[in-house]
Amino acid sequence: MRLALIAHDEKKPELIEFAKNRKADLERFDLMATGTTGKRLQEETGLDVERKQSGPIGGDMQIGAEIADENCAGVFFLRDPLTAQPHEPDITALLRIADVHSIPLATNLSSADAILDELVRQLESETRSHR
Ligand SMILES: O=C(CO)COP(=O)(O)O
């Protein structure tokens, strides 16, 4: 099962903290991230993360394409609600395609915890049914 992790600059510390707290659960999934988020996750948490382009140069669109191809089971996207982003259309497109495909999408830490709990539950029931 593949998950995407993304955070705007002001929110990266929160996402890193979440990833450290939930490392044991997150490392059971195939993780991907936008470029700078992925680099920081690798360096600061030791998680194995596939890195896409940085968000402003196409990373959000690459994650969106993974969703469209049904290669992404959940998105953790901590957005900065107080800073204008040059690639706002890409961000909107990513949120839209997640809704089109009904992909669980967390935009804050309490929903991130709840969604990760549910995805772990799904992963475990998939593993059981393949035994
Ligand atoms: O801009 C982003 C999401 O919209 C995140 O990109 P980075 O992870 O490269 O900072």
From TrEMBL:
SMART domains: MGS. Substrate binds at residues 8, 12, 34-37, 54-55, 87. The active site is at 60 (proton donor/acceptor). GO terms for molecular function: methylglyoxal synthase activity. The keyword Lyase applies. The keyword Lyase applies. Keywords: Lyase, Pyrimidine biosynthesis. This is Methylglyoxal synthase. The gene is mgsA.
